[in-house]
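Lesson 9: reading folded outputs for more than one chain in a single document. The general rule is that every protein is listed as its sequence immediately followed by its structure tokens, and records are never interleaved. Here is the first one.
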Amino acid sequence: AGPGLDDYTLHLANGLADFVRVGYSISTDMLDRYGGALDPRVVPLPFNRPRRRHLWGITEMNRLAKEIKAFQPDIIHTQNDGLWESLLVHLLGDLPIVNTVHDPIKHIDQRTTSALLFQKIAIQRASGWVVHSENLRKIFVQKFRKNSAHILVHPHGIFDYYTRFAPAAVEREKTILFFGEVRHNKGADILLHAFDSLDLPDWQLIIAGRGSGLSDENALIKKMEGRLDIRNRYIPDAEVAELFSNAGIVAMPYRHGSQSGVLALAAAFGCPVLATRVGSLPELVQDRQEVLF
């Protein structure tokens, strides 16, 4: 549901096109989705994104590496750290790499041995890094022992791609919106219990996004029928725009995190935000002021 790495990189590629020649390695399904928003000066380098179990991923990464080398880049920007990304950066040889590290500390429910290994490989392979706040830079230096001078702090980009689907001017409704993957670290269950405890008879809570983070809350969900709208599925772009255009408040009750594309979406639509003090959020969300992007 909602924005992810491809949306983030599309904005970065478009922005860089004003200054340099840009090649954009993008999966074929995301190219179909976002291609119309891509600056015509950006050269797409499409690939079929394999799952971890797909052995044909070896062949696909080898093909992609050759295509990237044929583009003759001066520098590579990466921002993911999975199995196939680790293979790809190895196949790219000694090309200089800058790595945007969204989460210096993995989410609570993503700290598997393999995930931590691939993160380490991606970080060690790079010669420069980007993080999204001063606090995250401190965490990164402490954890990975890198030279702070080689770490650029740049705020997470705004997700204004979705505003193209926004409906005509509407008044905000009395709804509290939780948006994104429903995982333990994002605290949808915390929000559910908090909303149930409040006397807000005219308000509705909307939880939109896939995930199993509410699997233990069936009794409470049934009790809140009529006040609660759960959309546990993929949310299409037009529906994303509708949700954020109408929301009275966007709630981010995160237990743990570094930054959030949901915050970038809320900023694009001018939504009021209620967030916990985790990761870079306190630097971007200031009480009674606009989100600082």
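And here is the second record, again sequence then tokens.
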Amino acid sequence: LFFIFILLYIAIGAILRLAGHDAKKLLVNLILAALLINFSLVITKVIIDASNILALEFYAKISGENKSVTQTLMNGLHLTSIYNKEALKTRDAPDPEKAGFANIILGTLGGSALILVTAFVFLAATFLFIARTIVLWFLMILSPLAFGAMILPQTKKHADRWWQELTCQCLLAPAFMFMIYLVVMIINSSDFNSAFSKIGLSTTDNFAAAFTSGVESSLGVILNFVLLIGLMIG
């Protein structure tokens, strides 16, 4: 019935020779839409699956060795060891039990900031991915209407909006995983780890030591983590 009414509209417009009414073009659009509308759900699913496969490729590269994304980040950022009292050793107070109060506060605040930012990023991503799933469901349900709306100039704007939303939601997963992959690559790079070695820390040392090794010596490490925070929020 939908196509019959459109066909009548095209015929009446051709008879009355309405301004801007291109009967041949509309007829071609009608035939194409009539063919594609039967496969609208399949086409939509193929596009969604392609984006998911791309996201999974990045996820596989991030995880590696059967590790989760969060575990990879936590190990690379040394966040879990931020409260290790051994990191609070300083030249003035080699005994962790006698470490200065300022060192304890600085190490705790610095580590807490990193943990909170990382938690915020993944919490925000959780809601984004839940919303993405729901929106994709609606886009699949409305896919026949979107393909049908491509026929007439008056309804084409709704079809364009549907395609734009589908593109945005499909790109969300691979774009997010790519940014996390980029952060992991930076963490594992030799240049990033060299900042630790400059202040006498190994790559397995925890981040508290960077905060408690003095401003000048630990500035490079802290700046590296500030850049990582910016990338993760971005």
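What the second record shows: The first helix runs from residue 2 to 16.
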